[in-house]
Amino acid sequence: MSGFKFALAGAVAAAALAAAGAAGAQTPPDSYQGKDLFGQALYAKGRNPVNVGTGDELEKAANSAKAAYEANMTVDSATWYARLLGYQGLPKDAIDVLTTALKKYPDSPKLLRHRAHRYFSIREFDKSIDDGLKSAKLYENKPLEREKLGPFPASPDVVQFYTYYHLGQAYFAKHDFDNAAKWFHRAGEIGVGTGGPPDVTASLYWEYLSLARATRYGEARALLANYKIDLYDLRDNSEGNNYFDGIQLFKDLRDPLDFYSERDTGKAFSTSDGIKSSTSYTLAQYYILRAEYDKAKPHLRKAMEIPTWSYFARIQAESDWVLLFGNEKP
Known about the structure:
single chain, disordered N terminus
């Protein structure tokens, strides 16, 4: 799952100067990507904000993908290049690539799935849902499809899993929890057969929250009771186990007073920023589900106090803050 860093509005010139002096890949001076839910501008920052490979490896892979895309624009060359742009913290640039490719391949569910993800990153939830639903419809009754990767250490994801998973995220951000639960459940069904314990765990974490936030408590508790995965099952997880930890908290197997962490796991998408935001967001949900909003408030705030602005926990924390506290500034 991807997240990307931002510079505060007004720091664009400084960011551009820093990028100009950096070795290796350069972030374009015009790196504006969108706005968060409070109207703050989001800018690309750093060569590898989510710790996927090394900065040099990511730059080399992105340059190679760009050349392949420009030499022969196919569905696969476009999605791979857009994916690497996303890793570099450039979802708006990725959207531009995917939109161009969709003019040539308008019925490509894979292109739509990837654009849905990038729209979510820049908080355009309605566009994300629209693309996601179109992708899901086009994938109906078709075989499962894995991503075709270039020479870079990325995961060969099943496209349908993330089509459904990101639909769940977009509906959750709009507080349409019934639809969110539906799509997270479908993602989990794919995960059982193809992604194993990590995918099952991630989708179940969000399905549980969706059901509970929709006050479907019986279904939510049954879902937790049937979750039997342990850390040994997750020993090969390429990312952090923050979703597993969250499920243990929701099952009352962890003490909320000892739950918070900001330890950098060294794994992809599990930097100190990612763990800080994820554990804070999980704690906020723990209290929101108990209607203890004053206790949830500082944890929502902390989940947003990271520069990596496209981590899901930060986006969802923004959305929950607006829902619960309106125009009040975090």
